[in-house]
Amino acid sequence: MFKRNTIGRRILLIFTFIVLTGSLLQLLISGSQIQDAIFEFHLHAMETEALIASSQLGARGGDGDEEDRLPQPTAWLPANLRYEYYVVDPLLRVIATSDDDLAVGTQVTPTEEIREAQREAIGRSIRDRHFYVAAPIGGGERGTGFLVFYEPADSAYAETGQRWLQLILSTVPVLGLVVIASLWISRTIARPIRALENTALQMADGAFDARIDVHSDDEIGRLGRSFNYMAEQLSALLRSQREFISNAAHELRTPLMTFKLRIEALGNPDQDPAERATYLRELNEQVDHMASLVSSLLILARIDESRHPLNVEPYDSTALLHDVTRHWRIEAQRAKLGFETDIPANLPDIPVAANDLWMVLDNLFSNAIKYTLEGKIAFAAWHSGGQVVLQVTDTGRGYSTEEGQQIFTRFFRTADVRADEISGTGLGLAIVQSIVALYDGRVEAHSAGIGQGSQFTVTLPLKRA
Ligand SMILES: Nc1ncnc2c1ncn2[C@@H]1O[C@H](COP(=O)(O)OP(=O)(O)O)[C@@H](O)[C@H]1O
Ligand SMILES: [Mg+2]
Fold first, then answer.
1. Where among 242, 276, 304 does a domain terminate?
2. Which of 272, 304, 336 is the endpoint of a domain?
3. Of ligand 1's atoms, which has the minimum distance to the CA of residue 424?
4. Which of 146, 184, 205, 324 is the most exposed place for a label (fewest CB within 10 A)?
């Protein structure tokens, strides 16, 4: 029923051990108390009889008869006496006995009960499986000899044995209950654990939708729930990784198709030189696109595998903000957009590697310019409550609330951006989010709606958690 090394087996062993030791102690205590009571009952009855008989004997014996002569036993012994007896004089010589093996005149040794009777009004002992009681003749007067009653203790021992047996037998149902309880406990503990084991193994074999049925609210139930939660997170992660790979493959295939078509066309010697130039330009653009796609994928892969270096070598981050904005001001002017900056002079150093700060800002500014047809771009930086905030605001396309929920998802691009075929990979904001998270910061996007402009706010703690 219990295989080796199972919780159930251990519970059964522990329970049985506890119950057995408990019962054994109980058995020893109550068993010896019962034995004492039975023996006391026998000895007490004997003592009463011995005292009565010895006082009768003393009364008859002191009648002025010859010293050693005793009255007939019938005169002082009760008629239906159950015990053997003998009477000794003060020198412990037998003067009367019911025992044929004990001759009159024999000198007896002072046994335990006689010695006790010499000191007190009555003596008793249990030896050689017999009860002995000795009473001084004449009920207390010393120097007159002793009457000794004795009887085999067999019946008392038999009775005790029976009581012992009853006690032992009464522990059997308790042991049965222990086995049942152990089975029940091991079921409620071991069964869900086995279910957990099976589900884990199923998941290891690729069944990522395997879940555990949770029935209880105790530790085991909570373990099951945590396991299911872990499984949920794992499958979500796996799903997103698979989607990511298939998206990446898809994004790489499109430019490759263009490559193939254009190269075929360029191979035609009759190709119009003007068209040839266009195709070459297109090829060049596709190569750039692929290069940027691949480098974005590499950055994300490095961050995902925690291989992105976080070396924060000291540098002047305020100067870096000025450098970046100087560059993007020129780009904005080229796109005929206004450009405003607000960088306070007392901004504390931002604890983010220079490369990473560049990457974050480049992505936000390039988006702002790409997705703004007219109006202006504004950049503001400030610090408060141990945090530095960097904010890029534009008056551009904006996006809808639903789109806003996916804007940081890898490869996501809003419908109108796709429709207008604006160049891009859909990985820029995902990279921004991953980098900012590396520094325990966060990035939030806001837009009042399509055509309403948008705002990206990066918050970075000055001290890492
Ligand atoms: N400043 C912005 N204004 C409007 N939409 C934006 C802005 N920045 C990003 N988006 C939307 O989010 C999408 C994802 O941005 P991003 O991850 O940088 O990818 P990409 O710029 O390569 O398309 C963009 O395609 C665009 O639809
Ligand atoms: Mg972008």
1. 304
2. 304
3. 22
4. 205
310 within domain boundaries: no
In a shared domain, residues 242 and 150: no
Residue 251, token pair as written in the block: 């994004």
Say if residue 73 is in the same domain as residue 145: yes
Q: What is the pLDDT of residue 140?
A: 52
- CA distances to 102, 153, 157, 441 from 128, rounded to whole Å, are 17, 9, 12, 93
Q: Are residues 56 and 95 in the same domain?
A: yes
Please report, in angstroms and rounded to a whole number, the separation of the first and last CA atoms in the chain: 53
pLDDT tops 80 at residue 66: no
241 pLDDT above the threshold of 90: no
- Helix or strand or coil: residue 399? coil
Q: How far is the CA of 293 from the centre of ligand 2 (A)?
A: 11
Residue 346 CA neighbour count, 13 Å, CB half: 2
The C-alpha atoms of residue 297 and residue 92 are separated, in whole angstroms, by 117
Residues with CB under 6 A from ligand 1: 363, 367-368, 371, 394, 396-399, 407, 412-414, 417, 424-430, 454
Range of the domain at 376: 317-461
Q: What are phi and psi for residue 151, nearest 5 degrees?
A: -155, 145
pLDDT in tens, 255-266: 898 889 999 989
Q: How many domains does the chain have?
A: 3
Q: DSSP strand E in 275-386: where? A: 338-342, 376-384
pTM: 0.65
Q: Give 246 Cα–ligand 2 centroid separation in angstroms.
A: 20
Burial of 74-113, coded b for 16+ CB within 10 Å and e otherwise, reads: eebbeeeeebbbbbbbeeeebbbbeeeeeeeeeeeeebeb
Residues 325-372 pLDDT 10s: 999 999 999 999 999 999 999 999 999 999 999 999 999 999 999 999
- Please state, in angstroms and rounded to a whole number, the distance separating the CA atoms of residues 46 and 99: 17
Q: In this structure, is residue 456 part of a structural domain? A: yes
Do 410 and 436 fall into the same domain? yes
Which residue from 403, 412, 429, 434 has its CB within 8 A of the most atoms of ligand 1, so it is best to mutate? Answer: 429
User: Distance, CA 365 to ligand 2 centroid (Å)?
Assistant: 9
- Considering the domain boundaries, does residue 177 fall inside one? no
Does 323 share its domain with 299? no
The string over 261-288, giving b where at least 16 C-beta atoms fall within 10 Å of a residue's C-beta and e elsewhere, is: ebeeeeeeeeeeeeeeeebeeebeebee
pLDDT band of residue 170 (cuts 50, 70, 90) is confident
How many other C-beta atoms are found inside a 10 Å radius of the C-beta of residue 120? 11
Which CATH number characterizes residue 237's domain?
Answer: 1.10.287.130
